[in-house]
Design goal:
Elements (H helix, E strand, L loop, with lengths): L1 H21 L2 H14 L12 E2 L1 H4 L1 E9 L6 H18 L6 E5 L3 E7 L4 H8 L5 E6 L2 H19 L18 E7 L3 E8 L6 E7 L1 H12 L6 E5 L2 E2 L27 E4 L6 H14 L4 E2 L4 E5 L1 H54 L3 E2 L1 H30 L4 H33 L2 H30 L6 H4 L5
Parallel strand pairs: 1-14
Antiparallel strand pairs: 2-4, 2-12, 2-13, 3-4, 5-6, 5-9, 7-8, 8-11, 9-10
Helix pairs in contact: 1-9, 1-12, 4-8, 9-10, 9-12, 10-11, 10-12, 11-12
C-alpha cells in the first residue's frame, strides 16, 4: 500500500520541477528574497527561454523562386541552395532561422527578429556564385605593386593615404574573373595522392566547362588561378579556421589541362579542410538563380506580442472551461483530471524548452487543441469506471477493469492522431509542421498523464473506507 504514496510523491516532485522549469521567475524571485533576508546563497533554478517563431517575436518572411531551367538534378540543386542561404543567414547571427524548400523550386526564408525587409534581402543576396579568376597582366600587377609601395611609404611617413593619387589601386585584386564559373562544374570530390596519401581536391567540369578550363589553364601555365565562392577564396590558408577575404591562396597551373578534370593540391591541406572546400564547391556549383522574392512580409514585434498574449489568454480560458466541465460532470475524478492537466501543461512546456521547439501560432494551436484531447483519455476511463461501479463492483475492481476496458479506445484514438501528425510534419509546409510537431508531442504527453498520473491519483483513494466516498464517482 505504501507504494502508491511513493508514486504520488514522485508525481508531485515531477510536477513541481516541470512547473518551475516552465516558468522559473517567481521561484527565483523567492530565492532572491530569502537570500537577502537570511544571507543565504541558495541557487536559482535553471532558466531557459522559449524559442519563438517569426509570427510571435516579429521578423521577415521571404519566399524565393529558383530558376531550375537546364538543371538535371533539381532536388540536389535546391538542397544546395538552401544550405548556402542558411550559411549566409547564420553568418549574420540571425537566431533560429527557418530555411525550407517548398514544392519543386520555391525556398522559404523566415528570419525571426529581423524586421527590415530590405536588410533581409541584402543579407541573403543573389545566388551563391562560384568563379575562377586568373592573374592580371604583368603590367597591371606592377601598377598595383608600385601603388602599394607608394601608399605604404605615405603611411610610414605619417601621411593620410588619401593624399596619394589613385590610392585605391594599391588595394585592387591582382586576379580578374574568367568566363569559367560554377555553372560549368559538375562535381568536386576529395581524393588522395597514391604516393604521399595527402588529400587533394578533384574538379570535374561538363563538356563546355572542360573546353573553357583547357583554354584558361593553357594560357596560365606556371601561374595561379584563384577560386572564389561568394567573393571569398575557398581555402583557409592563414589557419584562422575561417574562409574569408584574408585567405589568398590560389593553386598553380603546372600544365594545360584537357578532359575537364583537375586536381588542387596543397602541402598543408588537411582532410577536414579538403572536405570543407568540396562542400563549398558543390554548394556553389549551382546553375540556379534567384531574383527578388516572389512574396515578402514583415511581422512587427508588437503584432507578435499581441498574438502571443491572445494565444496565452485563449489557453487559460480553455483550461478553466475544461476544469469546470470536468468537476461538474465527473466530481472528484474531474478534479483529479484537472490536476493531471496542470501537470500535463508543465511537462509539455518544459519539453518545448528542452528540445527546443520553435513555437509559432500554428504550434500553439496544436498545443491548445491537444489540451482538450488530453482529457479524452480521462473521460473514457471515468466513464468505464462508472459503468463498472453501476454493476456493483468495488472501487478497486472498478478502477482496474475500467482502465483495462478504456485502454484500446485511448490507444487507437491517440495513435491515429499521432500518425496523422507525423504525416503532416513530413509533407506539410512550415506552419503545418509547427502545428503537427506540437500536436504529436502533446498527444504523447497526454497519454502519459492519463494512464500514469491520473490513474495513480485515483489509486490514492483505494482503502477500506470506500463506501463513504464512493458517491463522488457516480
Amino acid at each position: 500500500m505504501k507504494q502508491k504514496y511513493y508514486v504520488f510523491i514522485g508525481i508531485l516532485i515531477l510536477a513541481f520541477a516541470a512547473g518551475i522549469f516552465s516558468y522559473p521567475k517567481y521561484f527565483n524571485d523567492g530565492v532572491d528574497f530569502i537570500n537577502s533576508r537570511l544571507s543565504w546563497t541558495l541557487p536559482h533554478f535553471i532558466e531557459k527561454d522559449y524559442v519563438l517563431g517569426l509570427d510571435l517575436q516579429g521578423g521577415v518572411d521571404l519566399v524565393y523562386q529558383a530558376d531550375l531551367s537546364g538543371t538535371e538534378d533539381k532536388a540536389a540543386a535546391m538542397e544546395g541552395l538552401r544550405d548556402v542561404i542558411e550559411r549566409r543567414v547564420n553568418m549574420y547571427g540571425v537566431s533560429e532561422p527557418v530555411i525550407q524548400i517548398q514544392g519543386e523550386n520555391k525556398l522559404l526564408v523566415e528570419l525571426p527578429g529581423v524586421t527590415d525587409i530590405e536588410a533581409a534581402k541584402n543579407m541573403i543576396g543573389q545566388t551563391p556564385y562560384l568563379e575562377f579568376a586568373e592573374l592580371k597582366s604583368d603590367e597591371e600587377i606592377k601598377k598595383i605593386s608600385d601603388k602599394a609601395i607608394e601608399v605604404k611609404a605615405a603611411i610610414d611617413s605619417g601621411k593620410e593615404i588619401t593624399t596619394v593619387e589613385n590610392w585605391e589601386l594599391a588595394y585592387a585584386n591582382v586576379y580578374q574573373p574568367t568566363e569559367l564559373t560554377g555553372k560549368y562544374l559538375s562535381k568536386a570530390s576529395v581524393v588522395f595522392d597514391q604516393t604521399t596519401y595527402k588529400p587533394q581536391i578533384q574538379l570535374k567540369f561538363n563538356s563546355e566547362g572542360a573546353n573553357l578550363f583547357a583554354e584558361i589553364t593553357g594560357r596560365n601555365i606556371d601561374k595561379s588561378i584563384a577560386i572564389y565562392l561568394d567573393g571569398y577564396a575557398i581555402i583557409d590558408t592563414n589557419g584562422d579556421g575561417v574562409i574569408d577575404g584574408n585567405d589568398l591562396y590560389a593553386p598553380t597551373v603546372n600544365e594545360k589541362i584537357i578532359g575537364g578534370d583537375a586536381v588542387i593540391t596543397s602541402p598543408s591541406m588537411s582532410t577536414q579542410t579538403a572536405n570543407s572546400i568540396v562542400s563549398r564547391l558543390n554548394s556553389g556549383a549551382l546553375p540556379v538563380k534567384i531574383g527578388a522574392p516572389i512574396s515578402q512580409e514583415a511581422v512587427g514585434p508588437t503584432l507578435g506580442t499581441i498574438s502571443l498574449q491572445e494565444s496565452l489568454a485563449a489557453g487559460i480560458y480553455g483550461f478553466i472551461a475544461i476544469a469546470i466541465f470536468m468537476v461538474i460532470f465527473y466530481r472528484l475524478p474531474g478534479l483529479l483530471a484537472s490536476l493531471s492537466l496542470v501537470i500535463y501543461l508543465a511537462i509539455n512546456l518544459s519539453l518545448f524548452k528542452i528540445i527546443p521547439v520553435t513555437l509559432t501560432l500554428a504550434g500553439i494551436a496544436g498545443f491548445l487543441l491537444s489540451m482538450g484531447m488530453a482529457l479524452d483519455a480521462n473521460i473514457l476511463i471515468f466513464a468505464r469506471i462508472r459503468e463498472e461501479l453501476a454493476l456493483g463492483k468495488s472501487y478497486s475492481t472498478a478502477l482496474k477493469d475500467g482502465l483495462k476496458r478504456a485502454w484500446p479506445s485511448i490507444r487507437d484514438g491517440n495513435f491515429t492522431t499521432i500518425l496523422v501528425g507525423i504525416i503532416l510534419f513530413i509533407f506539410g509546409t512550415s506552419f503545418v509542421k509547427g502545428f503537427a510537431f506540437t500536436l504529436v508531442i502533446s498527444n504523447l504527453i497526454g497519454m502519459f498523464t492519463a494512464i500514469v498520473i491520473t490513474n495513480n491519483l485515483l489509486k490514492i483513494f483505494l482503502g477500506s473506507k470506500e463506501p463513504k466516498w464512493l458517491w463522488l464517482w457516480k
